[in-house]
Automatic annotation (TrEMBL):
Record keyword Oxidoreductase present: yes
Source organism: Aquamicrobium defluvii
Alphabetical list of PANTHER family matching this protein: BLR3436 PROTEIN, NADPH DEHYDROGENASE C23G7.10C-RELATED
InterPro entries named in the record: Aldolase_TIM, FAD/NAD-bd_sf, OxRdtase_FMN_N, YqjM-like
Higher taxonomy: Bacteria, Pseudomonadati, Pseudomonadota, Alphaproteobacteria, Hyphomicrobiales
GO molecular function: FMN binding; monooxygenase activity; NADP binding; NADPH dehydrogenase activity
Pfam families in the cross-refs: Lycopene_cycl (PF05834), Oxidored_FMN (PF00724)
Identification of the protein by name: Anthraniloyl-CoA monooxygenase
Amino acid sequence: MRIVCIGGGPAGLYFALLMKKQNPAHHVTVVERNRPFDTFGWGVVFSDATMQSMREWDPQTAATIEDAFNHWDDIELVFKGRKIRTTGHGFVGIGRKKMLNILQERCLELGVELVFEQDVQSDEEFADADLIIASDGVNSRIRARYESVFRPDMLMRPNRYIWLGTDKAFDAFTFDFQRTEHGWFQAHIYKFDDSTSTFIVETTEDVFNAHGIGEMDQDQSIAFCEKLFADTLDGSRLMSNARHLRGSAWLNFGRLICEKWSHFNGKSHVVLMGDSAHTAHFAIGSGTKLAIDDAIELTRQFNAFGHDAQSIPAVLDAYEEVRRVDVARIQNAARNAMEWFEVVGHRYADTLEPEQFMYSMLTRSQRISHENLRLRDKDWLEGYERWFAKQAGVEPAADGSVPPPMFTPYTVRGLTLRNRIVVSPMAMYSATDGVADDFHLVHLGARAMGGAALIFPEMTCTSPDARITPGCLGLWNDEQAEALKRIVDFVHGHTPAKIGIQLGHAGRKGSTKRGWEGTDQPLDEGNWPLLSASAIPYLPQSQVPRAMTREDMDRVVTDFVAATKRAAAAGFDILEIHAAHGYLLSSFLSPLTNQRDDDYGGSHENRARFPLEVFRAVREAWPQDRPISVRLSTTDWHEGGNTPEDAAIFAAMFREAGADLIDCSTGQVVTDDKPVYGRLWQTPMSDKIRNEVGVATIAVGAISEADHANSVIAAGRADLCAVARPHLADPSFVLHEAAKIGFSGVEWPKQYLSARSQYENNLARAAAEAAGRK
């Protein structure tokens, strides 16, 4: 085949040498606009895993790079006058120029044609090519030429950064955070040769402007950074090799995603690779990794389908299918890390102690978990666990051990929970006229014995017309209160768990069938009138609710207060107000469901007015020594709906009204929302509200193992973790997760103690067998 790589960066060069190595008959050309063996940039970073892949595909190149690179395991944090270091992280750093020179030399050895100082304007300059690799960078002319085909989405991020170098050699990947009178700056620093380190300085747009950096030239900008990071530089200077950039040389990062990566131009197949196809923020050092992995995967597909022009369409389809998944995963992790640095000042740096700040920074991408940190640096993590336990009031045992973060106690008002795991309210639709029966006793009792610190029945309705379905629990009469008290008494009498009550009103989502009969589908008969903020049905076939009048509001407030008093008398330990998921109170908060033009619609204050009326009345009726939480949909996942920024405003209002916790759920306000699912997918909203609003939070959403919960709690992204489906599948979820991570400090029911050792031994045996098979 005739192959032309436009752009002589890592993607183009590495693909060229791999293809030439696989089939020397290929005519492969790399066209680069710079001079031979000349490039710009400081050091690049990639992981040990990428290095291993390079060893497999071209050992000679890998060996040459390994001779030149700097490998380090340590990460050091400089923050608030402290230096904290942890090890075991496995990075590779090499000068960008050195790496490209190695790849260029290897290309020449294999017979790849290298053409320099040719500034390609169009792919049509290579009409004889079977395959054209558009590896011409983030500002790719080739991608721009076929923009309607590739459909690139470039999102410019708010932070400003400048890419510098220094002649000081750092022995760890160093993060230096410095506060000025206007806010925080951070430096990302790593050595890439014996005498030089990359030194990236980053800050927010507001801080950048407040210091007038945009008015500086490069020399003034560099002098500003040298003064700011003088202690870390210790007399060394900062250098720029971006003299071609005008002004201060500070940039905004652009996140690039393309809908399609390949195109047939009528003569040649054109495919995007590296930064021309996708970008990932430098916060996790993945740009070079993605470029190398692109080159490897495209070569792998040619090996699978055949090294001939006829195979190219199938190769490109398979290449894109495979790479799109991995790139999305890396971009998601990079986005998490990038967003962490974008909000680090006011969300974390101002409030967290250095120990927890370090943990939060290490886990910022959510790819590194609690147990992964233990594998990397057991001593550091155990030290951090001791620090965290001390903050929770737990002293080390005689052997120095402490409970993992999820098993530390938590106190709010007069309530102390023995650990941080909550059984979420989950709709069972099994009540009769709102009355709990033996099913509820067994269901909730089993989970109370299963190790969770706090359990909730499903949303309990404050009136007959507040129900979602005819099977919902209620608390509008004494019979219902007595049935619930029976469950409360069992939990308190037979387990160390606490039990809460979640009060709610279905609003426009009421009068529907039980979940297994047709979720959200209206009843065939026996319907009741519905209320909502506005007269908007939930589904096209749903009943149209009545927009609430002042009289309706007064009645609903009265119902909530009456249910609150019954819940207090029944002995519930905590009360939660359900103001999420499009139910009645949520329908006032969201602009998607609230189209009122009176004092209860429009602004945040107006939309929150009625939910706050309910909350304040409930807070007054609820015992002062018992806490109240509020469940919010912290984003509607829908254009024009509430965003996390809106949710933070509402959370602050509820905090000021006396809320002790915000239970951070999302969505379900409208049927055509577009949530982005994944592990811990709703935790970022909890993180934002806890650390920006200054109120304790409950995290929910795909928290399915101890490692997840420990990571969330230890990083300070939430104070409690609510777990739903895993508790349906396993009532003893918490006991079992404790055993899986080897924590023996959790209490089992005495009646079940004979099973404990067998369960733990079986886990140990299975782990030993798995290790033996490796």
